């Protein structure tokens, strides 16, 4: 059985194409359902993008904060905020939800679009294909390039129990607007870490056991673009990084990430470390598993003068350490992809603990 | 303005995934609209694929003949055949149209799906965005890999007046089933010519003036896969050729073909030469315009022992020659992509005639 992969319905790519967003949304505004909800990363609150949002009468603009990784509780709160606004206005659903920002902001907008048409809390839907009703129209405008949240069928959320996505065909965006000019302003080291998220993702999927030719083609292209961007600094680096993220996201159709992501999920859950930086922190200790990838990653770090945070786990309690190991081990497909069917004979709790202690 | 590109809704890729077609179609069969129409290239009439078609009660199987390139008249005839069948059965529209074969068969199935919900003749819709009503659900199963008809928003048709596609967002397939096992049986030189259609397409778009980073990424990957398939004969050549076709099709979003396609359209219109072979015939005379591409193309020809047809235009009347030049020159965007804004000062009728006379 091969996954029948749901793709984003419409895509526009080009320098300055953000200016077309208003016209694109106009096609979705109907006389009886015209309100758009914009969820925008609050780093743009005092930036020029703010004045370019195609807001119309009754539209709702919410600045979202993603200093912490998206929580199901935050999704529920945002949905409440949208519902209150809509009750005051038309009493109906909004015509669409537009997410503008990085992976976290896009994930929040996917989750809000889904939860407007599905009852209960976002935490009820963490898992695979639990969503029953199609979401309202939802579109994304990435302003950071990472692992292709813009094309994925998941929205990664941290719930009370677990960090796990809402995986569903209904999660996939109806529209993405890929304007390389919008990622130009991303500060280092954030740009570097989200880029490495993409690069590491490629290393893990290309060296994994799950790969087929579809995902290989996308993974190889994504990796080549990352190498160009971070080792050669081409003039059109923003365009290339945006395409790297897109291709990396597409490559996940028939591949899986590996050891770095599994360990990084543990760090995120226990220490609250952001996904992008978490992957970089972990990857630097994985030369036994991904020797060539780690070597190249270090060249990129040196070139971009990145100092990784160290000694993050020094003060963890035993209970915290064991929780971290638990979270990492739960992600069985990642281990199997990296190490094959016999992964349980290769990786032990002690080996994982050892790796975590170095970080 | 950048094109807002409509993408195929769902895609499955993998060796043997054709076996999933029945389940995929089941999701589209509703109690009140359950009939599927299969348009299958008649080269499969006596092949094993015939017995693997997931036909159910009342489904209609039509063997299509694509010895000639698809004509609008043929589309109208097929639509009539489907309508007659449906009147005898449910009196309603079919649940879907499934095209199985190469680019021509896929194009026929796109056109039939569109014309079941739009009045008049297919010839009325040759052009851009003339289609008013969405098509019925339509899916494609390629059994040849060429230029990515499986992902394009056009269906190339020859009408009474012109060879021109029905270009519309509604043309795009709802589902594609990419099973590399199905292209294994394609005979040489047909496999070579359809592969070269993809390769030449990449040369023209990558060296064109219209390119942006989206199309460049796809074009480069498609070309690298073609080079691997036709210069190194890897074990997984079928998988790679299928991905080359897919990537080549995606690359057209923000690029355009060039001189070879313009001239080949003329050959097709006047001599009825098939698209794939037509491109190879023309490309061999374009070393002034695409020196590196033509060099590599000749290496591929040699390796695969291809003898191109020659002296095709020796017996043409002056009127036929002028018609051929007319057809080629009508395709202005192709010339502009290849030669820039000033293309009219670079290419003349006499130069085109000279090229045609060599073929």
TrEMBL record, chains A, B:
Gene3D superfamilies, per database record: 3.40.50.1970, Dehydroquinate synthase-like - alpha domain (1.20.1090.10)
All residue ranges annotated as the Fe-containing alcohol dehydrogenase-like C-terminal domain in the record: 193-326
SUPFAM superfamilies: Dehydroquinate synthase-like
UniProt key word rRNA processing: no
Keyword set includes rRNA-binding: no
Keywords attached to this entry: Oxidoreductase
Alcohol dehydrogenase iron-type/glycerol dehydrogenase GldA domain span: 10-180
GO MF entry, a single one: metal ion binding
Record PANTHER family: 3-DEOXY-ALPHA-D-MANNO-OCTULOSONATE 8-OXIDASE, ALCOHOL DEHYDROGENASE
Protein name, as recorded: 3-deoxy-alpha-D-manno-octulosonate 8-oxidase
Lineage: Bacteria, Pseudomonadati, Thermodesulfobacteriota, Desulfobacteria, Desulfobacterales
